[in-house]
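Whiteboard transcription, Tuesday session. T.W. wrote the structure tokens on the left side:
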């Protein structure tokens, strides 16, 4: 449910996008790029001009791996040239010739990077990997060339200072304030020597992030659990065993291979009856990036954390988190930490209670051992069956993927917002697993394209996420082209994809991000759709999860894939009831990951970290989250969100957004639930607004009050806990 990751921002989106985060300056390397790019880039390159396909969809039938690098280099050169022209404009700075001009610049680099980020995240290969490695520092330098350009910042500042006298409309005023803040956070006010130092740090950070991502991808692939003994897989379903056999075949090895998800716990641990196999799979997962050798990530993350602390110091902040949260809804690390600390006692107490229930089952079965983390899901599934009598194998036949998509995810959006979906088989895709739909508004107006790519592949990053191939902007005349990616187990050829209810929820989640992009209705690309702070971006997605179990929606999609019979009411009630199950564990593993993130990113610039493992243990001890049976959802060494995906000092945002989504859903419940009137109001006041207004104010205007933590505590079963001072 909280396993997504995504990029953000439009004009500055490269800054936060899948593989780099950086700022620095000196135009020298950039000019060099400009000279080297002309060769090899011309009209035959599919990125040369905007796509002529509907919605400017990427022409994947024409794009070859070799097309990316020349397009990226030409795009960087174009962006730098356009930015130079804005900065050097002899005319007095105006909103139009500075801010609007910046919004219009960089069409080529945006066009190619949006596609490149998409395919490198979900369809990576060695050629693309090489381009990514080569271009990361150049893209970082491009960001620097913009943010640390003194002349450009002077123009930005001039407009910022007199913004109130310019009679700008609200969105334009917001653009001025937002852009100015981004410049300042990026170091625009530093002196030249410090800018040079910052540039070096940003380059190193971008390179380290890229190295982390590629090592982790390789480590996760290598660490897959392999066995030649079929009895080790006892307990897995026929479909899971077939998938493991297929994975072995794909890798050209004998036997079975269980590939790893990016989380610590693995889905197969729920059903493997062989305890030694459970332990082996779990240890493969938790040690994946700490095995020494070429794919060990520990040195990288120590250096990244130090570097980020030093960078924050240079920029005038006590630590990286303080710098990073400046433009977020929470605003300070203290606010985020206070919010999390208050939940720790209840979460861990509940987890320990759940652990006792599990130990009781082990003892009743004369297991003769103490609960270990690799046993947790296996026995908790038995507790679930005993307490809730719910067997996932009974529910999967009611969750056939395509049916869930059409009659659940799309249906809920239709009922709430009046939109319709039409399959488009004429739009080219980057992999045969990808499906494309056109999204049409209630009045027949085309709204967006939506791609979905749901099945796990070895060359795909773990987890699930949403992003865009084209962002919406009235200024640019573009409509959104959105995609959702997940890692569901692919069924054998000809078999239906029967997914778990947690997968169903993930589909609603990612489509919630999708709606935030689809309904975007902004003038400026920088403020459009999902270009919002991290601690707001998960609000629309987590909010959309609520509809997965809303009776009128659930009953519409939860039908047996063979007979079409609705799920028996008794079974449906059990799913609903089981949603409260294991919440202590789930919240604890999430808090542990979020606290790890904050501890790594609140260390001072002079802190010395000798060993990543010791740092992790100390961080979890300090935050009262070191539980032998509840490891963090991600250990530091494979925490992709914070080392590679722009969520550094931002993982708390999932919980912060949960406060918002539960509070928002409470409003719907208080106002008649799923109705077009409620949906249209939410679309109008929240989903279409992007970052065009201060988000705390945006929320309060819609809600009629500040967000309350009470609905979240109720949903999590923590209502009785007194707040910790
Ligand atoms: Zn998400």
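and on the right, the sequence the group agreed on:
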């Amino acid at each position: 449910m909280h396993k997504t990751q995504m990029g953000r921002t439009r004009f500055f989106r490269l800054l936060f996008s899948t593989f780099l985060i950086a700022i620095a300056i000196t135009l020298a390397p950039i000019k060099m790029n400009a000279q080297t790019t002309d060769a090899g880039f011309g009209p035959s390159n599919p990125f040369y001009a905007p796509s002529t396909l509907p919605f400017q969809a990427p022409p994947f039938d024409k794009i070859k791996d070799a097309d990316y690098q020349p397009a990226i280099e030409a795009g960087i050169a174009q962006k730098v040239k356009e930015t130079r022209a804005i900065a050097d404009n002899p005319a007095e700075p105006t909103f139009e010739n500075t801010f609007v001009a910046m919004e219009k610049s960089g069409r080529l680099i945006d066009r190619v990077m949006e596609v490149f980020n998409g395919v490198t995240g979900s369809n990576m290969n060695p050629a693309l990997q090489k381009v990514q490695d080569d271009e990361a520092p150049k893209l970082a330098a491009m960001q620097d060339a913009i943010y640390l350009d003194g002349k450009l910042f002077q123009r930005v500042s001039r407009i910022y200072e007199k913004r109130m006298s310019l009679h700008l409309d609200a969105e334009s005023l917001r653009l001025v304030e937002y852009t100015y803040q981004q410049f300042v956070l990026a170091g625009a006010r530093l002196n030249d020597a410090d800018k040079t130092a910052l540039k070096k740090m940003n380059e190193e950070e971008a390179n380290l992030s890229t190295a982390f991502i590629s090592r982790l991808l390789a480590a996760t692939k290598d660490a897959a659990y392999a066995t030649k003994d079929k009895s080790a897989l006892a307990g897995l379903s026929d479909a899971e065993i077939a998938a493991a056999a297929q994975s072995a075949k794909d890798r050209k090895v004998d036997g079975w291979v269980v590939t790893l998800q990016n989380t610590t716990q693995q889905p197969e641990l729920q059903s493997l009856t062989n305890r030694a196999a459970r332990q082996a799979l779990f240890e493969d997962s938790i040690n994946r990036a700490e095995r020494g050798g070429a794919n060990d990530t520990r040195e990288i993350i120590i250096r990244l954390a130090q570097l980020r602390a030093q960078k924050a110091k240079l920029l005038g902040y006590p630590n990286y988190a303080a710098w990073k949260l400046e433009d977020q809804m929470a605003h300070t690390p203290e606010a985020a930490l206070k919010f999390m600390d208050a939940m720790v006692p209840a979460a861990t107490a509940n987890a320990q209670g759940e652990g006792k229930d599990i130990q009781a089952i082990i003892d009743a079965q004369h297991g003769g051992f103490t609960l270990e983390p690799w046993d947790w899901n296996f026995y908790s599934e038995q507790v679930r069956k005993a307490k809730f009598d719910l067997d996932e194998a009974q529910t999967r036949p009611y969750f056939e993927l395509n049916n869930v998509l059409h009659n659940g995810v799309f249906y809920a959006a239709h009922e709430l917002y009046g939109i319709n979906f039409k399959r488009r088989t004429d739009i080219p895709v980057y992999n045969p697993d990808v499906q494309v739909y056109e999204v049409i508004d209630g009045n027949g107006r085309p709204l967006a394209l939506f791609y979905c790519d749901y099945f796990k592949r070895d060359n795909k990053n773990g987890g699930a996420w949403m992003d865009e191939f084209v962002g919406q902007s009235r200024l640019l005349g573009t409509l959104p082209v959105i995609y959702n990616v997940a890692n569901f187990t692919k069924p054998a050829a000809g078999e239906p994809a029967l997914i778990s209810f947690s997968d169903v929820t993930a589909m609603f989640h990612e489509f919630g991000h999708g709606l935030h992009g689809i309904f975007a209705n902004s003038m400026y690309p920088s403020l459009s759709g999902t270009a919002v702070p991290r601690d707001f971006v998960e609000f629309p997605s987590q909010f959309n999860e609520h509809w997965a179990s809303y009776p009128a929606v659930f009953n519409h999609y939860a039908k047996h894939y063979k007979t079409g019979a609705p799920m028996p009411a008794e079974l449906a009630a059990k799913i609903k009831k089981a949603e409260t199950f294991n919440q202590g564990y789930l919240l604890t593993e999430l808090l542990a990951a979020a606290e790890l993130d904050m501890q790594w990113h609140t260390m001072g610039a002079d802190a010395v970290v000798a060993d990543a493992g010791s740092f992790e243990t100390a961080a979890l001890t300090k935050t009262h989250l070191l539980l032998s049976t509840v490891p963090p959802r991600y250990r530091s060494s494979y925490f992709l969100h914070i080392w590679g995906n722009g969520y550094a000092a931002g993982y708390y945002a999932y919980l912060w957004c949960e406060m918002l989504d539960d509070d928002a859903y409470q409003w719907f419940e208080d106002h008649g639930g799923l109705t077009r009137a409620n949906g249209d109001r939410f679309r109008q006041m929240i989903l279409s607004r992007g970052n065009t207004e201060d988000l705390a104010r945006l929320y309060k205007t819609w809600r009629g009050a500040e967000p309350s933590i009470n609905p979240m505590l109720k949903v999590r079963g923590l209502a009785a806990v007194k707040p910790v001072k």
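Someone added at the bottom: Residues 30 and 142 are 7 Å apart (CA to CA).
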